[in-house]
Structures are given as structure tokens and as C-alpha cells.
Amino acid sequence: MNVLEEYQQKLRTPTEAVQMVKNGDWVDYSQTCSFPTALDTALAARHTELKDVKIRNAISMRSVQTVEQDPQGVAFTYNAWHCSAIDRKYIDQGRAYHIPMLFRDCGSYYQKGFAPVNVAMVSVTPMDRHGNFNFGLTNCCQQAILEAADTVILEVNTHMPYIYGMEADHIHISDVDAVVEGHAEIPTVSSPSATAIDEQIANRIFPYLHDGITLQLGIGGMPNALGILIAASDLKDIGMHTELMSDGYLTLYKSGKITNKKKELQKGKGVFSICNGSRELYDFLDHNQDIISAPMSYVNNPYTISRFSDFVSINSCIAIDLYGQVCSESAGTRQISGTGGQLDFVTGAYQAEHGMAFLAMASTFTDKKGIKHSRILPKFTQGDIITTPRTQAPYMVTEYGIANLSGLTTWQRAEAIINIAHPDFREDLIKAAEQQKIWRRSNT
């Protein structure tokens, strides 16, 4: 049987394919742009006949019908490795749960049997003449998911860009149980506009950058502001090695700043593991030999990152306390995002010969009542999740400056952190540091 015949033999409607799901199954939707839209809709239609089906996903970019159509969670329990705004809403409503993880280890959870998969449903490119389906925008841990699955259902999408991979970038028709053809547009994400504070923070970090660095950028207004600064600067020969590729990198490619010529690994090629952004970004990536995808187990491995001599990692955080503990994923016990790859890159950048990791945030936020609060706290007491421990806290950045916490005593940390706090809160922070016996008052 040739591959076209096998394809036709395994071709199903979404309604037919989801009959493979049974009560009590674990169903995996992979992550972000690999979300199987047609299959999710078809599975949701079975909400009156199924019970206790557990679904895994991450970074949902459109409404999840298995959640929407089953508001009481009788048929489906939705679980997210990492939260988008949609996932956060579901968790806030008590209709979903978070799965703590390190991105570098996500594939191993499947490989070691900690995350069983009865049915995997993922969106892929159309099959090529050799019988292969490219994973497109999501490399991540997709191969580990599919290899762990008892049943594999692919949702073919003609809108998915074809992206060359370093490894783990495709699956053959012979390893597939069913194929459906879906034609939903790949979800896009608009880049948030940079605020004045984002621009101030970007200007604080910019002097630390130089020609030939390999750069990992997180997402948000501040990284976008920094991307604009780099694009307009004289910097050259930047390299890309990042867990998530967004439009900030597209700006750098279009300006000619990224060449990947100075990288120690995958020289001449930018590397990412997952991608979401604009349609322009997706079209830019399609069959682009300058860029390759790779698994998180490689991209986010601190050993991999340490092999770049000049690696710079720039991510955001939510809050920090006077001990240097960093929260980047929750507000109290409310889940906002996830650990993701932050600790991976903080660890790897520190191990690189000239590596630097920056964690940035505005010094304050204003609540719904118009009251301003400091993001720098005396100590965490409301259940905030510690994403980066104080022992690994790197360069911390606000609009008021940069504090390199490596090697500092508790009193030195308190001073350095208070120095980048909003001036309105510094005296109260000093009083708290005194009460906590971590204040030496050497610079006041």
C-alpha cells in the first residue's frame, strides 16, 4: 500500500475520529498553535455521553469547546501546562487546572510515564509525498506526546506553515491511527504595545547588549520595545536561540540584525521550539531554511544554553521580595502563566561564559480601585509561586535601574532591590528590611 492509499484508508470525519475517546481517557492537545480545532469541537459534542475525560493543553489561543460545552466539568477536565489569557480565565472560573512544569522537562514527563496519553490529537501540515506530516509551529515536546499515545489522530491544516526541524519535527502516516482534515485559520496573537515604562526598562538593558550575542526574548511590551531599540541601533550579527518565537524576532530579522553568524551552535540558523504571533510571522517561517525548530529538551537545556559564550536572556516577572525570590507566574495563589522556561534560561545563561539573564518588571501596578502597589515586597506571604529562587536570581530590572543579585549577602540584596523600587515605597521597604534583620544601612 502506498502512502496516499494509507492516508485515504485512515481518513475520518472529526465526528468519526473522536469515537476513539473512551471514558476516563487522557487526551492530549499538544500546545499553542497545534490545537486541534475541529477535533476539539467534535469531542465537545460528546459531552452528554462521556465521563471523566482528562485533557491536556498549553497556551490556548482560542476558546476550548470541551470546556465551553461542559460547564460543570462532568465529561471533561481541562488541564494546562502553561496559561494563556483564555486558560487563566478557565482556572479563575474553577473550570480548569494548572500543571506545574519546567519546559525543559516537559517531554520527559511523557517519556517516563508520568503523563499518560490514551489519545493524542494535534494539528499538522498536509502530508508530503513521502508520507510525512510536519509539526509546523510546535516542536516543543510533540514527538514525546505522540510516542506516548496509545492512539494518534492528526488534524491536517493547510494553513500550518512548514518549518524545518533540527529533530522531532514530523510523523509518518504509518504511525498514525486516524487523519481528519480541518481548515481553521491558525490563531494569531497581536504584539502588545510598549508602554513608556517598557521603553524605560528596555533602555536600561540595552547598554548590556553588543554585537554577536545570542538572544532569548520573552513576550510582552518590554521585549518588543527592546527589539525596536535593537532594530534601530548599530548592533549586528545577533543570534536567535529561544523557546518561543514571536513578532519581536520578526522585527529583528526584517531589520537585518539577526544573522546567526556568530553562534557556537546551529551557526547560520535561528532556533526556536514553539511559535505564536502574526500571520506575517507564520508566512515568514514557512519553508525558511534560515530558521529551524527543536524540542524544548534541547532548546531549554541549561547545558545547551551554556555553550553559547555570549548568551543574553530577557524575560519578565510579576514581583520580587527583599530576599531576591522571584514570582513570575501567579498573583497570590491565582495562576497567571507558568514557570515555563524562565528558570531554564536563568540557569543556562549563568553557566555561559559571558552569559547574562535579566528579569524585568514595572516597579508598581495600579489596582482596579486606582491604588498603586509596589511589585517589590518585603516578603511573599499570599501564596505567590516562586518561579526563580533567590539562589538563582539574576539581573533584576525596573524603570529605576538594574540590580545584579549574584553573590550578594541578604543585606546587600535588600539594598540593591530597594534601590530599584519606586521611590514612594522605599522607606517602607527599609523599615521592613530592618524588622526582618536584613538591613545594614550602608548606602543611606
Poorly predicted sequence stretches spanning 5 or more consecutive residues? none
Number of helices: 16
- Would you tell me the overall average pLDDT? 95
Kindly report how far apart the N and C termini lie: 80 Å
Strand content: 15-25%
- Helical percentage: 25-40%
Characterization of the model:
The chain has 444 residues and is of the alpha/beta class. The chain has helices at 3-10, 14-17, 37-44, 65-68, 85-92, 106-111, 142-148, 196-205, 221-231, 247-254, 279-285, 296-299, 302-306, 342-351, 410-419, 426-435; strands at 26-28, 53-57, 76-80, 96-98, 117-124, 132-134, 149-156, 170-172, 178-181, 214-217, 239-245, 270-275, 291-293, 311-316, 319-321, 326-327, 330-331, 334-335, 356-360, 364-366, 372-374, 376-377, 395-398, 401-404. The strands form 6 sheets. The protein has an 8-stranded mixed sheet with strand order 13-12-11-10-14-19-23-24, with helices on both faces. A 7-stranded parallel sheet has the order 4-3-2-1-5-7-9. Strands 16-15-22 form a 3-stranded mixed sheet, with no helix packed on it. A hairpin with a 5-residue loop joins strand 20 (364-366) and strand 21 (372-374). It is globular and about 80 Å long.
Helix and strand topology:
Layout: H1 3-10, H2 14-17, E1 26-28, H3 37-44, E2 53-57, H4 65-68, E3 76-80, H5 85-92, E4 96-98, H6 106-111, E5 117-124, E6 132-134, H7 142-148, E7 149-156, E8 170-172, E9 178-181, H8 196-205, E10 214-217, H9 221-231, E11 239-245, H10 247-254, E12 270-275, H11 279-285, E13 291-293, H12 296-299, H13 302-306, E14 311-316, E15 319-321, E16 326-327, E17 330-331, E18 334-335, H14 342-351, E19 356-360, E20 364-366, E21 372-374, E22 376-377, E23 395-398, E24 401-404, H15 410-419, H16 426-435
Parallel strand pairs: 1-2, 1-5, 2-3, 3-4, 5-7, 7-9, 10-11, 10-14, 11-12, 12-13, 14-19, 15-22, 19-23
Antiparallel strand pairs: 6-8, 15-16, 17-18, 20-21, 23-24
Helix pairs in contact: 8-9, 9-10, 15-16
